[in-house]
Design brief:
Blueprint lengths: L5 H21 L4 H17 L2 H18 L7 H17 L2 H10 L1
Helix pairs in contact: 1-2, 2-3, 3-4, 4-5
């Protein structure tokens, strides 16, 4: 039996966009905002919206680097790099995917 997950993805996307809007209205940079960006990017990836997913993951990585004081060795940085690698893999840009995975 095949289950149609698109309605759930649409609902998740709307909720994540709203959460991110609320978070950004009260604070421009916070770990929770970086996590919400990552979550939103993952929903975009599941929907096949690769450009949006890539942009959200890049924003999440940039924010996490700033929050870490630009230290590249941190679990949250690794998570963002891994997620970026997943988007590149889905896009077929495996060379860039491998670079992200090595850095993670």
């Amino acid at each position: 039996m095949r289950v149609n997950v698109m309605p759930k993805l649409d609902m998740s996307l709307r909720k994540n966009v709203e959460i991110l809007r609320i978070q950004r209205s009260s604070n421009s940079m916070h770990w929770d905002i970086a996590t919400s960006l990552c979550d939103l990017a993952n929903v975009y990836l599941l929907e096949g919206k690769m450009d949006e997913a890539l942009e959200m993951h890049k924003q999440s990585l940039e924010m996490r680097r700033e929050l870490c004081g630009h230290v590249n060795i941190h679990p949250h940085i690794s998570t963002s790099l891994n997620c970026l690698g997943n988007v590149h893999y889905a896009r077929g840009t495996t060379a860039t995917q491998k670079i992200c995975m090595r850095r993670a």
